[in-house]
Each structure stands twice: as C-alpha cells, then as structure tokens.
Amino acid sequence: MRSCVVMLNKNLIYALILAFTLTFTMKVEAAAPSINSASQPQGTLQKFSKLEWDLSVNKEYPNPFYYYDASDTPQSNPSNMTWYGVDGVSVDMVIAEPGSSNSFKVPGFYYQEYKRVLVDGQEVLGKVGSPTWKVRYTPSKTGTYIYYFTVQDKEGTARYPQTGTLSFAVGDSNSDGFVRTSTKDSRFMAYDSGRPYVPIGAGSQWYPDREKKSFSYDDLFKTYGDNGVNFLRIWDEFDFALGVEGAQTVWKTQNDPNLAARGVEIKTTNVRNGLRSARPANGDPWYQRVAISEPNTTHRLTAWVKYSGLSGTGARIYVKTGALFTSGQILAQSQVFSGTQSNCNRLRLTLCRKPKLFH
Question: Residue 20: pLDDT band by 50, 70, 90 thresholds?
C-alpha cells in the first residue's frame, strides 16, 4: 500500500517532490502469451444472472488496460503519446448461445479488488490481493452455452483450452431482464419479459457526502429504492465524484481536504517516471489515506524524494494511524530533509506495527 504525511516547516524555494509505490517487480517477457487457468461459474446458473470467470495469464504488461491493436503504433500517433495498442493485450471469451453456431466475443478486463472502509465518517480505500483478469457475462437465454478464451499480444495468440471448448447450462429465472425498446410500440421501453418500463428518474452527479463518498451512495440508493426511483444519472469521471482519481484522492491538503485530486504531475523532470508527486506548500502539508487489507503483514513503503532550498527545521515524511491529518499515532518517519537534493533518491519506511488504517 502507499501513504504518507509531509510536513514543511520553513520556506520552500523549489518543492518537495515525492511519491510512494508498491515494492514489487514487474517482468515483461518477449514470449507468446498463454492462459494458464480459468475458473468456472459456481452454483445454479440462471437467465439474466451475472456470471464471472477469473483467468490467469502467463505474462505481465506495463499497461494491461490497452487492448492489442497492431495498427496503433508510435508512428501512427502524436509524438507525446506514451502507450500504444501494439504493446497492448486482449483477453476475450468467444461464446455461442444455445442452438446457434455463430459465436461472438466478450472482452475481458484487468481487475484489482479494493477494500472499502468508513473511519471517522470518511471513506478510505485499500488494495486487496493481486490483480487478475476477469470476464463477465449475463446470459439471456436458457440452454447450453459453448465457449473458450483467447489472449493476444504482439508476440502471438493462444486459446484456453488449447483444443475443444467449455460449456455451462442456464436455467430459467423470474428476472425481467434488460430494458430495451418495446417490440410492441417503439415509442416506449420494456424489459425482456415484455413488462413495460416507466423510468422515474433522479440526478445525483456526485455523492451527497464528500467525506463518506461512495458510502453516502449506499444511503441515497436505499432512499431512492424506497420511493420507486429506477433511473439515475451519475458522473463517473469527475475529481470529487467517482472518477479514477476522485474515488480516492491521490493527495489531500491539510487546509482543504475536499479539493479536487491533487498531485497529478507525472512524466516531468521533477517526478520519477510513472509516479504521481506531492508538492506541498509551506504550512500546508499533503497526505493520503489508505486502508490496509492485510493487517497482520509488515508493510514497506517507498518514497522518491527531491527537494531544493529547504531551511530551518526542514521537512519529514510521517506514517500515522487514523483517518485525519492531525490524528493518530506515528508508526514510522523519515529523517529530516534540508538543503538541496537535486535527484530523486529512494527512501524506504518499514512499519513497526501492523495497522488496519494509516495515513
């Protein structure tokens, strides 16, 4: 996990640039891809239910969120582009519905499980386990489905199983299914079952409580459900809503923790490649809140530090328990930084205790 509190006590001429990253090794192999294993859906499978598979792929990729596209090359993109489809990977399920010889693809996706906790009225997130590949599919017919998986990158293509196919059987259910244009009157909408769908809408572009964040949606959705609301608009790409950076702000500032995501400077001369930096100002420290998903494991955090013109009592990195900047017990701290460090030097902090939550 990653987290820190940075406190600056005197004038800062340049800035303190630091970032935390997980201490793991990513190995990229120039070998053909393959799928080592795939889980199977468990329990009674019913029409319109969510089915899910976990897949193990033999390779790791610098950016697994880019699907493979041989035509998407550096030469076909602007010079400031960083990632290209030619370096991507595609994991798919190829499936045929009951009674059909025609198959279609269901794209897989790279998935990271998160732990979500509410501490002192504030939402805190923490990673759980290692990332994996997943495929999700909702069957809309009863009967037996035939399928297999494929993986493709610039080194080749593979399938799982290597020969033959897999299958699963689906029974009927009481679900009305998906909402579509009515087959009886195209001016209206209806469920797959034919039952009319009359939308009763509400707008909640962002969460009602900026501290509880997604937890406040739990309360809101219950209220909406109790009052018959069945159509909702949410902004899912917004700094203080459910965006990638907004769901758990990269950095918070002590003086205004509800500001939009902070410290998103990347790929500059000030920041180690691929990391997001914190640049606190004098008298306004920055911090992150992180939930620990493995409380019985000793955690090591790595910071890359660069600073210039620090005087007086300088600056320091703290790791503390609690959800707020001013609360909690100090678990680990760095030495005091002062003067100038023009290169990003690595600093490691090992937690002496094993907290469930720190910042």
Answer: very low
Cα–Cα distance measured from residue 259 to residue 253, given in angstroms and rounded to the nearest whole number = 8
CA pair distance 109, 104, nearest whole angstrom: 16
- In order of 270, 274, 288, 338, the CA distances from 308 in angstroms are 11, 22, 23, 8
DSSP state of 19: -
Q: How far is CA 202 from CA 221, 230, 231, in A?
A: 10, 8, 6
Written as six digits, the tokens of 203 are: 């707008």
Instruction: Give the integer Cα–Cα distance in Å for 34 and 191.
Output: 39
pTM for this one?
A: 0.68
Bridge partners of residue 279, in order along the sequence: none
Which uninterrupted H or E stretch holds 36? strand 35-38
CA separation for the pair 46, 345 (Å, rounded)? 55
Secondary-structure percent of the chain, ordered helix, strand, coil, rounded to 5: 5, 40, 55
At 133 the pLDDT is: 97
Radius of gyration of the chain from its Cα atoms, rounded to whole angstroms: 25
Q: How many CB atoms lie within 10 A of CB 316?
A: 19
pLDDT tens-digit profile of 41-65?
Answer: 888 899 999 999 999 999 999 889 8
Cα dist from 118 to 207, 241, 327, 357, whole Å: 15, 17, 16, 10
Candidates 157, 164, 159, 134; CA nearest to 149 is 159
Pairwise CA distance, residues 320 & 331, whole Å? 5
- For residue 159, how many other CB atoms are within 10 A of its CB? 17
DSSP letter for 180, please.
Answer: E
Residue 69: alpha-carbon gap to chain centroid: 23
| Helical segments of 51-182, H only | none
- Which residues 6+ apart lie within 8 Å of 274 measured at CB? 266, 267
pLDDT tens digit sequence for 241-275? 565 544 444 566 766 655 655 655 555 666 555 45
- Minimal CA–CA distance to 3: which of 271, 247, 250, 304? 250
d(CA 288, CA 357): 11
Dig out the tokens for 266 from the structure.
């990347």
